[in-house]
Amino acid sequence: MTQIETGNILNGLIPRPARVIPTGYRLSVDSLNSIRVPSELQHLGNKLVKSFQYFGKVIRITASEDATVTLDLDRTLAAEGWKIEISQEAIHIYGGSHAGIFYAFSAMRQILALGFARGNSLAFFDCGTIEDNPRFEWRGLLLDSARHFQSKEKLKEVIRLIADWRLNVFHWHLSDAQGFRLPSDIVPAPEDGLCYTRKDLKEIAALAAEHFVRIVPELDMPGHSNYLLRRFPQYACDPLHPGAEFCLGNTGARFFIKSLLSEMMEFFPDSPIIHLGGDEAGTANWENCPKCRAALQQAGLSRMRELENQFMNEMSRHVITCGRRPMVWCTDSVHPADTIVQAWQSVNEIYRNYPHGNQMVNSVHYCYYFDYPANSSEPRLAWMPELSDENVYQASEPLAEMSDRLFGVEACLWTEIVPEWRVLPKIISRLPAFAENAWSRIEHKNWHDFQRRKMQLEAVGYTA
Ligand SMILES: [Zn+2]
Questions:
Q1: Which of 2, 83, 299, 380 could make an S-S bridge to 373, C-beta 3.0–4.6 Å?
Q2: Gap from CA of 336 to ligand 1 centroid (Å)
Q3: For 275-338, what is the HEC assignment?
Q4: Eight-class DSSP state of 401
Q5: How far is the CA of 92 from the centre of ligand 1 (A)?
Q6: C-alpha–C-alpha distance, residues 359 and 341, integer Å
Q7: How far apart are CA 148 and CA 300, in angstroms?
């Protein structure tokens, strides 16, 4: 048989699997003709049939024992884990759960693209076993729909795309200085009409669930709230100049925000985690406000940052009372141990919070902010560093002994200068590198090997 210069197909996958054991044999695609799928996995089986069809290979679903492709759950595998066994006669695909099968398919699509690179009649697969499960439970992407709005259809494309690269968290930034995008009964709809309807939210949640993606909605507070305060100036320190921060000494403001949070939880009944923002609030308005100063004194505190922390804790307790879990951006404050903290300014934030027992997500900006330009030709703000896919791949890692509290990683696409039509290109250019960081074992990472696999997949026309 001809030597194939591209190497073993099983070593061509992104993210790199935990374990690959090639046998040196080959399976000719000609011999594959049928797939056996347990009834509970029927909808997933159809997806695989379609993937084969895409490459011109017709494969029919059968109940017969001698099917050449089989699909099964294997509860001994990790929940998101999967296994593919390719022998000279058959392909067996196993998942620890439906999500595991879904992730096995994402690997299968790459195997198909590499195997069918010479066309249907010459197609083959290398034989062997691949066993895989993710390094991190939290593999996220943040999309900012407040600065620039994206249509429901664009959001669906984004969710499908990230799921193909095995991300499982869609962190949705829905409120900021430029807009509040939920169909609220409390906040009037924006004049430009750019907000989601209840029906949109349901459709997006259903699509996310079907792709094993969890939605984490965010209401940023007490800063980043200019839009809400322009409409409700009575909750600002100075109603004539509402600014960006809610007044911390205004009980009406606290009640208002809790109502918005309760409404948000109603919009996202299946989201166990609610993000409360908490970043970049200025203290100047609070320092000059008699209400804030009185609240500070009454609470027996000396600094406005402490009062802010007390406010954030009150909001996070509200979320807990409603049966959800709070998450915040990292600041200098300490949060109750049940709050998830998202590091964004530096890896030191992970070290600083570690002793307090919080679970943490790594979104450090110089590693994972996808609004930064991927190369020198992309538009940027003057202060933005360049963030190539190599920079993403070589992202800072916290010390290994802190891994027990590191929930995972999340890339963030802020949209100050990213209109809707640039959203997908901004994500796609760095997504494979990010996906490998999120999924693969750190000891298996190698930039040159990653580049080889990426170029190979691109060369055979693989797109997620
Ligand atoms: Zn105030």
A1: 380
A2: 24
A3: EEECCCCCCHHHHCCHHHHHHHHHCCCCCHHHHHHHHHHHHHHHHHHCCCEEEEECCCCCCCCC
A4: G
A5: 63
A6: 6
A7: 41
**Ranges of CATH 3.20.20.80 domains, the chain:** 138-439
Question: Using one digit for the tens of pLDDT, what is the confidence trace for 331-341?
Answer: 999 999 999 99
Planar angle of CA 360, 363, 367, nearest 5 degrees: 140
Alpha carbon of 383 to ligand 1 centroid (Å):
31
Distance 311 CA to ligand 1 centre (A): 12
Comparing C-alpha atoms, which of 143, 202, 196 is closest to residue 167?
Answer: 143
CA of 187 to the centre of ligand 1 (A): 21
Question: What beta strand segments (E) does 68-114 contain?
Answer: 69-73, 82-86, 91-95
Taking the centre of ligand 1 as the mean of its atom positions, its distance from the CA of residue 178, in whole angstroms, is: 22
Residue 245 CA to ligand 1 center (angstroms) comes to 9
How many whole angstroms from 253 Cα to the centroid of ligand 1?
Answer: 10
Distance 316 CA to ligand 1 centre (A): 20
Between the CA of 267 and the centroid of ligand 1 the distance, in Å, is 30
Burial 128-161 (b: 16+ CB within 10 A, else e): bbbbbbbbbebbbbbbbbbbbbbeeebbbebbeb
Cα dihedral 287, 290, 292, 295, rounded to 10, equals: 130
287 CA distance to ligand 1 middle (Å):
8
What CATH number was assigned to the domain covering residues 9-134? 3.30.379.10
Domain with CATH 3.30.379.10 in the chain: 9-134
Q: Report the C-alpha gap between 69 and 288 in whole angstroms.
A: 70
Q: How far is the CA of 270 from the centre of ligand 1 (A)?
A: 34
Alpha carbon of 235 to ligand 1 centroid (Å): 8
CA distance 366 to 327: 21
Ligand 1 center–CA 294 separation, angstroms: 9
pLDDT in tens, 196-240: 999 999 999 999 999 999 999 999 999 999 999 999 999 999 999
pLDDT single digits (tens) 133-155 = 999 999 999 999 999 999 999 99
The answer as to CATH 3.20.20.80 being correct for domain 138-439 is yes
